[in-house]
Structure formats: C-alpha cells, structure tokens
C-alpha cells in the first residue's frame, strides 16, 4: 500500500472502529488484555486502542511498523498506566532476543501481516517457555460466508491496508509450536458480517 494509503487508513481507523469498540469488541479487548502478565509484547499495536487497558504488568513493548499508525500511538502514550515503549518493527522480524516476553498480544493484526506463519514463528521465539500468546483475530468463516470472503479478499485488502478475510489463526498455531489452551469463536455485534467470526484465544509456548 502507498504511504498515502497508510496515512488515510491510520486517520480513519479509530472513527471507523468506534461503533464496534463501544459494543462487544471493546469488551473482548478487555478480556484479551486482562490476560497479559509480566513483560508484555503487543505486535501491530496500531493507534494504541489497547493501551489504556494494561494494568498490573511489568512493562509493555508495542511494535508497529507503519509510521502514520505509530504517530497516533505516540499521541496516546499518556493513556498508559504501566511503563511502555514503542518500537518500529514488523511482526515477521522482531528485534528482541529469544525468550524475552511472558505474554505476546495480537489484536486484529494477523489478518494484515504479509507472512502470518513467519510472524507466529517470531512470537514463539520471543516468548519464554510457558509464556502465552493471547489473541483476538478475525478471519475465515464457513459456508456461504467463506465463499464471499474468498471472493472479496483481494478488493478488501486493497482498501483496508492489506487486511485479509480468509485467515484462520487456529490453523497456524501448531506449525509455530504454539499450543492452543483456549479458542473461542465469536460473532460480536455490531461488526460487518464479512469479517466474522472473531477468534479469541490463548496459546502456550511449551
Ligand atoms: C487492523 S489494524 C489493528 C491495530 C490494533 N492492533 C488494533 O487492535 O486496533 C492492523 C495493524 O497491523 C499493522 N501491521 C501491518 N503489517 C504488519 C506487520 N508485518 N507486522 C506487524 N504489524 C503489522 C498495521 O500497521 C496496523 O496497525
């Protein structure tokens, strides 16, 4: 996507998400972020919608590779109640040592990364043994919805900064050696049906 496209997407992101955030999506974010413990990495932190939700953790490192998103995130750092740091990095190449984090968080990110398998391998690498990957991701549905998701995947990605409709995080975890502890398949409203269902889950780095 062009830099103008990234700037536009960053500018419209919060207003576009606001109706869903006030509904069930905000509650699902509370649930996911409430599971974070210790030293936390959040990948693809975007405009920092999750930031104010962190409490009782040691510190949070927020990675975000897109400059217009990072600028908005920087403007939100005052919302944080725990020590935070912003790092410019794609999820596929995390600039951290092995076994650095107790928790890695991803909300609505694996739909957008260029290589989700590489991103999950990096998540696994930077997690300490026994550390947890907690996620809220939208992706592949079933039946007629899946047909429409496949049809619309390419045009959707073109207008939404590379977001794909057809990915299923649950299918990608085993290859990254992340062991699902819990996966809930959800239909939060109001949310456009084409991006449902959401998958909220926890996977453990053995
Ligand atoms: C739909 S937004 C979600 C933002 C935020 N996580 C949230 O829950 O609102 C997707 C985010 O993933 C970021 N992103 C895109 N490619 C990425 C990559 N390769 N690695 C990490 N983040 C990426 C985008 O810049 C954007 O901030």
Q: What is the H/E order? A: HHEEHEEHEHHEE
Instruction: State the name of the first-level CATH class.
Output: Alpha Beta
Which structural class is indicated by helix and strand composition? alpha/beta
User: Within the CATH hierarchy, at the fold level, what is the topology?
Assistant: Rossmann fold
Radius of gyration: 16 Å
Which stretches are poorly predicted, pLDDT < 50 over at least 5 residues?
A: none
Strand content: 15-25%
Defining traits:
alpha/beta, Rossmann fold, binds S-adenosylmethionine
Q: What's the gist of this structure?
A:
With 206 residues, the protein is α/β, with parallel strands linked by helices. It has a single domain (3-205), classed as Vaccinia Virus protein VP39 (Rossmann fold). It has helices at 3-22, 24-33, 67-75, 116-126, 143-159, 169-172; strands at residues 39-43, 59-63, 84-87, 101-107, 127-138, 178-186, 198-205.
Explain what you see.
By secondary structure, this protein is α/β, with parallel strands linked by helices. The protein has a single domain (about 5-205), classed as Rossmann fold (3-Layer(aba) Sandwich), CATH 3.40.50.150. The protein contains six helices and seven strands. It has a seven-stranded mixed sheet. The radius of gyration is 16 Å and the shape is globular. The termini are far apart. The mean pLDDT is about 95. It binds S-adenosylmethionine (SAM). S-adenosylmethionine binds near residues 44, 65 and 108.
């Amino acid at each position: 996507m062009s830099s103008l496209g990234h700037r536009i997407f960053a500018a419209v992101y919060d207003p576009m998400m606001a109706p869903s955030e006030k509904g069930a999506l905000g509650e699902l974010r509370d649930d996911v972020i409430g599971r974070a413990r210790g030293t936390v990495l959040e990948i693809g932190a975007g405009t920092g919608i999750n930031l104010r939700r962190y409490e009782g953790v040691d510190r949070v490192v927020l990675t975000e590779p897109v400059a217009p998103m990072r600028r908005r995130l920087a403007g939100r750092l005052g919302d944080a109640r725990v020590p935070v740091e912003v790092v410019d990095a794609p999820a596929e190449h995390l600039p951290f040592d092995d076994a650095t984090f107790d928790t890695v968080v991803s909300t609505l990110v694996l739909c957008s990364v260029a290589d989700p398998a590489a991103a999950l391998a990096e998540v696994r690498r930077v997690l300490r043994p026994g550390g947890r990957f907690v996620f809220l991701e939208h992706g592949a549905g079933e039946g007629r919805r899946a047909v429409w998701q496949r049809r619309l995947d390419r045009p959707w990605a073109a207008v939404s900064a590379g977001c794909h409709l057809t990915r299923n995080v649950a299918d990608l975890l085993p290859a990254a050696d992340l062991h699902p502890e819990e996966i809930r398949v959800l239909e939060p409203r109001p949310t456009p049906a084409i991006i449902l269902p959401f998958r909220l889950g926890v996977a453990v780095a053995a």
